[in-house]
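Subgroup meeting minutes
Present: P.N., E.W., G.H.
Scribe: E.W.

1. P.N. recapped why we're keeping a running log of single-chain structure predictions: easier to compare across weeks, and new members can see raw inputs and outputs side by side.
2. G.H. added today's entry (226 aa).
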Amino acid sequence: MPSEWWTYSLRDFLLFSSRTYYRLFELYNAAIWPAQLAALGLGLAVLALLLRPSVARGRAIAAILAGCWLWVAIAFHAHRYAKINSAAFSFAAAFGLEAALLIWIGILRGRLSFERCAGRTGLWIFLFALALEPLIGPLLGRGWRPVEIFGVAPDPTAVATLGILLLASGQGRWALLVVPALWCAISGATLLAMKAPDAWIPPLAAVLAVALAIRQRPTRRRTGRT
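Output recorded in log:
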């Protein structure tokens, strides 16, 4: 007689081991080198654009993010992750959708503005994803080969995007928050199933970003009326 559904844990739905998962990142990093250096350069370019915001620079930021999300959709999810996870093609489609939304909302319609940033928490989240998140794996003893870097790996790309969107104003940012937040939840569940000690980082970033975005809404409405 089959077990009841409530007797299952997250680990029962995991299709691979933690060793296989991190080995995937090792092979991926080796295959795309030196794309990681270019991705870090793009991250620094985004930081420079954020420090001197304008509507035109907002379009440039959206273009960089769109390129990163499209890269991860194709190079990581569709070509690599799909080898160990059958859901990876759905993840690739979601990341492709985020890239398309960034192009439509941020570039073509110019609805992402960084001229009136409310608070700096978003900037700290972005800096964490860019500079500190890649160090977590090595600090936990996983070494440098499976390191995850903004622009080419899904987790830091999603976390960085959440931080950037917290700094943005405009009606379009709510549509752009959905996919990164959902990915952070999925990634957190995957890491939790593998009993990874850093499993809390992606979902915490998502919860923090969404909560702060909700909190900013009335502030920006009052600012617009004065």
